[in-house]
Amino acid sequence: MQTNARTLLGSLLLLSMASCGSGGSEDTTFVVRTSKLSVAGTTPLNLSGRNLFFLCSEATTGSGGTDFNGDGDKIDAIGVAVDTVTNTETRLNVAALDGAWAGSELYLTVSEAGDGRDWSVPADGDETDIVLLHFSRTTNALTYIDELDSSSLPQAIGIGTQLFYTSSTLHSGPGMSNLFRIAAAAPTTTAMVDTTDAVAELKVELLAQDEGLIFLGMDEAENGRSLNGDADSTDTAVLALLNGTLANGVIRNAERALSDDSGPFRARKTASNDWQVGFLVSEAQQGNTNLNAPGSFAPNWQPVQCVSHADTDTADAVLHYLRFADWNANPVTDPVRNTGLVGDDRIAIANNFIATISKEADEGGCDLNQDGDAFDEVVRWTQIVPDNDPILPITLATNIRALFNCPGGTHGLAELDGRLVISVSESDDDTDIDGDGDTDKNLIGWLLPANSATPWDFTHGTGNNSFAGATWMAENRERTRLCMAYQESVNNEQINSSDTDTTDSMPTFADMASSTTMVFPGVAIAVRADNAGIGLGKSVGFYRVSEAADNRDWNGDGDKTDYILFSTGITDGVSRNLGILNNIARQAAQFDVEAPSGLAYIVDESMAGPTGADLNGDGDTLDLVVRFLHF
Fold first, then answer.
1. Which of 572, 573, 556, 419 is nearest to 508 (CA)?
2. Strands 598-604 and 624-630: what pairing?
3. CA-to-CA distance for 604 and 612, rounded, in angstroms?
4. Which pLDDT belongs to residue 15?
5. Bridge partner residues of 81 (DSSP)
């Protein structure tokens, strides 16, 4: 049953809500399938359009476990391929570490030791390798592709219809690398990716990809030479970049040592084959150099409040950027630029400006936001200027805000429609932003970054209910919506009618209704505040509802202790109950962010009914199982 859409006074615009009194039943609009295989809560759910890959657990599938790959134990993770349209689930009976798609072609990373067999072709007489296998739906068979570089995680990344992987084979000579590509059209044919290095071969590791740009790391000790020009060969992660959208992209060394090979990274696509790219460089590994020394920048680079706190150490991570197409064409005339801004956790790019989260303690102990201490994490940003134009970040203390480290992956800094969005801690910022006489809230503000000191906008509407706070916040792929768990308590407004408190958080999909107005369309139902798991694909949002917080028995099993998966159509505003979910710290549901078609999520059998339900038919109610659908 569905109610009409309605709007509350205040900043939360409610979409329509599927409701069935004090409880509910699963909506049958989507045809949901349940796997008969158990999984671990950490299993990947990798999707490419309609295709799904996950790892089932031998230990928990079947009564007493099941040895699917015949190696004499029941401790392996077994690869599974699913077509969510035909409901075809294929257990591949091989112990896998991960799986990646190139279009509809599936590739598995497999441990020979875990699988108990020598997969190499020709056989090399051991079971110690990590190998890449291809699964063919046509022949229902696995084919050996290559031996992988076992030190590189991840070992394979799919982008569109191409797969990139790090091979154990490294050909000698300038321009050579150990990175190979496979095109889905010829799914067992490999081709080495060339480099621009004119000295010798490059051994690389896959680090991440963002909007089609691949970030690679190079260990100088493994390469036997300095790769960042600092006269030593001890740096562990020197950055290289590759255009992953081309069939003939070439690896280019950025000659900068990363502070951490897990990022943060950001590549904002600006045109075909072009990105604005941000990353953090380690002062210690980049020649033990002070990269945020005020004397290295224009006179107005340093905030006036920091003149007596110039940073002199070489222990920081410092924000750098490049404009990919120009840099890739000529890194001398269009070099990597050092912003001098210390960074941590996040990089965001909006309106030709780049931002990061800076720790005041790393900026020479400077009280950047002038709140009387130097313990905050604040947002800093500067324009992405070309060539040798001066780097001039905004320095006014009233613009530099202390952030709330918001769960969900943003850490309190996000992008939305070409703007920056932050979650500010009134307490850490020592500012009563909403004028209620205290500093106990975390409030959402936004701005269109510019060279002038434009103030952050914290008001979203008119009247007393014009502020917004979030307990959880995540970006969607296009940064056209911001997934947030919107707090009732910020405006002391009761939104979900199933209880009488104002302590809950609601799923919202924030949007810029105009160039000057941020709105929060959402649903009057309480999510798990710090683990909302909100995601958005194909104009449908998915989120983790907490029965306890919502004070409602949504699956009708006589208790209010479960977590339920709901969906909401952003266009039609209709919400649906998709049944029990889980309380695992991960997205509520997962899909291919590039071309959403299939959807997958994990359900906890113990939440199905008063004593649980045996959803996979193995005789117990203790398992986690995968559900999937096509939408």
1. 573
2. antiparallel
3. 9
4. 65
5. 53, 90
Q: Which of 97, 106, 177, 101 is nearest to 129 (CA)?
A: 97
What is the structure's pLDDT at 594? 80
Written as six digits, the tokens of 289 are 């150099």
Q: Which two tokens stand for residue 473?
A: 């916040």
Of 438, 407, 562, 522, give the one whose Cα is nearest residue 10.
522
- Cis ω before 174 (30° cut-off from 0): no
Comparing C-alpha atoms, which of 430, 340, 433, 413 is closest to residue 376?
Answer: 430
Helix (H) or strand (E) holding 113: helix 112-115
pLDDT of residue 317: 97
pLDDT given for residue 154 in this prediction: 85
**Nearest alpha carbon to residue 277 among 193, 225, 212:** 212
CA separation for the pair 447, 468 (Å, rounded):
15
DSSP string of 197-243? -SSS-B--EEEEEETTEEEEEE-HHHHTS-SSSSS-S--S-EEEEEE
Q: Evaluate whether 82 touches 628 at the Cβ level (below 8 Å).
A: yes
Q: Quick count: other Cβ atoms within 10 Å of Cβ 171?
A: 11
pLDDT, residue 27, reads: 67
Instruction: Report, in angstroms and rounded to the nearest whole number, the Rg of the chain calculated over CA atoms.
Output: 26
Q: Edge to edge, what strands does the sheet with 265-271 contain?
A: 265-271, 274-282, 317-323, 337-342
pLDDT in tens, 489-517: 999 989 998 999 999 999 999 999 888 89
The closest of 359, 353, 510 to 420, measured between CA atoms, is 353
pLDDT tens for each residue of 436-473: 999 999 999 999 999 888 899 999 976 556 899 999 99
The structure tokens listed for 306 are 């920091």
SS (H, E, C) 381-402: EEECCCCCCCCCCCCCHHHCCE
- Other C-beta atoms lying within 10 Å of the C-beta of residue 464: 14
Residue 299 is encoded by which pair of tokens?
Answer: 């006179």
Closest CA to 337 of 285, 394, 426, 276: 276
How many CA atoms lie within 13 Å of 296's alpha carbon, on the beta-carbon side?
Answer: 13
pLDDT for 42? 96
Task: Identify the bridge partners of residue 546 per DSSP, sorted by sequence position.
Answer: 563
Mean pLDDT score of the chain, rounded to an integer?
92
Tell me the domain boundaries of the chain: 263-458
- In 396-481, DSSP assigns E strands to 413-416, 419-425, 442-447, 470-475
Distance (Å, whole) CA 326 – CA 335: 8
pLDDT value of residue 29? 67
Amino acid (1-letter code) at residue 563: Y
The distance of Cα 120 from the centroid of its chain, to the nearest Å, equals 34
Collapse the DSSP code of 150 into the 3-class scheme (helix H, G, I; strand E, B; otherwise coil) and give the result. Answer: coil
**Residue ranges for the chain with pLDDT beneath 70:** 1-29, 151-152, 462-465
Instruction: Give the Cα separation of 57 and 133 in Å (integer).
Output: 19
Strands (E), 252-351: 252-257, 265-271, 274-282, 317-323, 337-342, 344-350
Which residue's structure tokens are 């071309």? 595
Residue (of 117, 99, 219) closest to 165 by Cα position: 99
pLDDT of residue 434: 93
3-state secondary structure of 427: helix
User: In the structure encoding, which two tokens stand for residue 291, read together?
Assistant: 């990269």
Q: Which amino acid is at 373?
A: D
Rounded Cα distance between 316 and 292, Å, is 8
